[in-house]
Structure formats: structure tokens, C-alpha cells
Design goal:
By secondary structure, the chain is of the alpha+beta class. Among the domains are: about 170 residues, Penicillin Amidohydrolase, domain 1; about 60 residues, Penicillin G acylase, beta-roll domain. The chain is built from 11 helices and 14 strands.
Length: about 350
């Protein structure tokens, strides 16, 4: 084990790396152990922390570089609004959990004092902002959206693209039976769907943490040679990328230990074990989002939508996308009681 020199720490803990470079953090209590985890995240993964936060908040062009692909990803994440309900989410946390997050964030911020600005961020003039509870939840929202919601959206989008590409209707009905038995193909062919992100923007987004598939196996004690339960969790996330999505760590406090894979930016052990319990994570597709077709027309402050024989104005929020060294871009986002329009309607079709 190679001891690590700890600087600027407000809580007491020690850390050392094993032969594989995995940090072992020892503290007197659980909050101090979380503080140490945040500290090591900041020491080893500052660029990953800061880029993920900037991208998820739609501020990459402002904080990193004014590049077309970053402006494109900013538009994407601003429309989604992963950060719009963070204050409400924070208010729902109980005092105990809020305190744990506070300890972790203190560790990140003190670790940043030691790591300073990483070379990539220094090169683009990026200055980090203090890490806080909102940043933790934002990274969690990013993981949930990029892994779970996007998969369902892409499945439904693919079906629309097949219909609009003119694929034989009977073949589609057979392939997706019974989902398309009562579908209005003429209507679906007229729907305007948002353009896909460019290859350059997609490349940036794929650098962010996300779930994409996995295997998980559990064996009962009665079915194992040892007589003990066995658990194998295999998230399908790239190990040949720098940095890796996960960050392996071992925490020890008092008579307890916790070891496993964490997500930089969060005090989250996704795949881990203690002296008494082991858990894993697997990926599956759930019905967690819905698409609605709106009949739209120009009017009011921009667009209106129809309910029966009545037309109602969309709510509009103006997203100001700052661009380093250039004028800001103002993007209107239209929404109603159902959700947010994924793009502006097509005046020719009204959909």
C-alpha cells in the first residue's frame, strides 16, 4: 500500500493506494469516510467531474469552449432541463442524507484545492465552481436520463422514423404487433420529430456517464459449492476509456468497510459489498416516459396547442445559452401540462 499525502483536509482521514491503484480510505466515522471519497474523486477525476456538470447543465459552450457541437449539446440539455427541479429535490432530502451529501461535497471542494485545475480545463480557461448538493443530484439525474429515459425515447423514435421512411405498413404491423393495430399512419407520417444530434455532438454526449446494458446473477446458498450466496454484477460500460465511468474505492470506518464502484460526483456505490451485504446494478428498459402528439398552430407568444375545439398558448421559457467569446443565444422552449416540445412545430403540418 502506498500512503497518500493529504492536504487542505477539514476532516480527519487517511488514504493509501494498493497495487492496482485503488484508494483505501480510512476514517473515524461514515461522514468522514464520505468526505475522503469526495476528496479522492476531486484528486483523481477533476476533469470528469467538471465536464459532466457543465454538460448536464447545458453550459459547455460557456465554460469549456464555443464549439458548434458543444452549443448543440447545450441546446439539447437545456431543453430537457435536468437541473430545473434541483431545489425541489434538495428540499425533499431528510437532514441525515443532506448531511452526508454535505460531507461528500466538502471533500470534493477541499480536494480541488490540491488538484487545482486539471490540464484540459486549464487549457480552455475553465474555473471550477464549488461542488454542492445540487451538483450531486444533477449527476444522478444525468445518469438516470442518459441510461433509462433515452433508451425508450430512441425505441419510439426509431418506430416513427421507419414509418416516415415509407417502410411497408403491413410489415411494421406484423413486426410490432399488436402495438400498431390501431395506429393512424397518415398522421404519424406528418409528425415533425427533432433532428438527430450531429456525430460530433453525440461523441461528446457518449463521454458522459450513462447506463447501456448489463448482466447480473445471484446464486442462493443452497446452490453454491461453498454454501454461501454468490453475486456477480457486470455493468456493460467501457473499460477501455479514459477516464472510466466508475471509480473503484474501499472505505473503512470503525468496524465497517465498504468496497465497490462509485460514480465521480456522487457518493454512490453502484456495485459494492460490505461485511454483511452485497449489491449490484443491472439495466432494463422500463416504461418511464411517454410521447404525445400535439396539434399546433402559430399564435399567442409563439405557438398554441389544441384541446378539443379550443386553442391554448404554450408556456414559453427562454433559455440563454452563453458562448465563450461570442454573443449569447436565446432559445425558446415551449411546454404545457403534458410536457416539453422536443422541437418547434412545423408550420406546414401543424404537428
Amino acid at each position: 500500500m502506498k500512503p497518500l499525502r493529504i492536504k487542505h483536509a477539514r476532516r480527519k482521514f487517511s488514504a493509501a493506494r494498493d497495487d492496482n491503484g485503488v484508494p483505501h480510505i480510512t476514517a473515524g466515522d461514515w461522514p468522514s469516510a464520505l468526505y475522503g471519497l469526495g476528496y479522492l474523486h476531486a484528486i483523481d477525476r477533476p476533469t470528469q467531474l467538471l465536464f459532466s456538470r457543465a454538460a448536464a447543465g447545458g453550459r459547455s459552450a460557456e465554460l469549456i469552449a464555443n464549439q458548434p457541437e458543444l452549443v448543440e449539446t447545450d441546446r439539447f440539455f437545456r431543453r430537457i432541463g435536468l437541473d430545473r427541479n434541483l431545489e425541489r429535490e434538495i428540499a425533499r432530502l431528510d437532514d441525515l442524507i443532506f448531511g452526508y451529501l454535505t460531507a461528500y461535497c466538502e471533500g470534493v471542494n477541499d480536494g480541488m484545492k490540491t488538484s487545482g485545475r486539471s490540464l484540459p480545463m486549464w487549457a480552455v480557461g475553465f474555473r471550477p465552481h464549488p461542488w454542492n448538493q445540487q451538483a450531486v443530484l444533477l449527476i444522478g439525474n444525468l445518469l438516470n436520463y442518459a441510461g433509462l429515459v433515452v433508451s425508450q425515447q430512441q425505441n419510439e423514435r426509431l418506430l416513427l422514423e421507419l414509418i416516415q421512411a415509407g417502410v411497408d405498413r403491413d410489415k411494421l404491423r406484423e413486426l410490432f404487433s399488436p402495438l400498431l393495430d390501431h395506429a393512424d399512419f397518415d398522421l404519424l407520417e406528418r409528425i415533425k420529430i427533432a433532428s438527430r444530434l450531429s456525430d460530433e455532438a453525440l461523441e461528446r454526449i457518449t463521454d458522459l456517464p450513462r447506463l447501456a446494458g448489463s448482466n447480473a446473477w445471484a446464486i442462493a446458498p443452497g446452490r453454491s459449492a461453498s454454501g454461501h450466496a454468490l453475486l456477480a454484477s457486470d455493468p456493460h460500460l467501457e473499460v477501455n476509456r479514459l477516464p472510466a465511468i466508475w471509480y473503484e474505492a474501499v472505505l473503512e470506518w470503525g468496524d465497517h468497510y465498504l468496497m465497490g464502484a462509485t460514480l465521480p460526483g456522487c457518493p454512490l456505490f453502484a456495485v459494492a459489498r460490505t461485511e454483511r451485504l452485497a449489491w449490484g446494478v443491472t439495466y432494463l428498459k422500463g416504461d418511464i416516459c411517454d410521447y404525445f402528439i400535439e396539434d399546433c398552430r402559430p399564435g399567442g407568444d409563439g405557438w398554441q396547442y389544441r384541446r378539443g375545439d379550443e386553442w391554448h398558448d404554450f408556456n414559453v421559457r427562454l433559455e440563454r445559452i452563453e458562448r465563450k467569446g461570442d454573443d449569447a443565444e436565446i432559445m425558446p422552449v415551449y411546454f404545457n401540462e403534458v410536457g416539453t416540445l422536443e422541437c418547434e412545430p412545423d408550420p406546414s403540418s401543424g404537428l
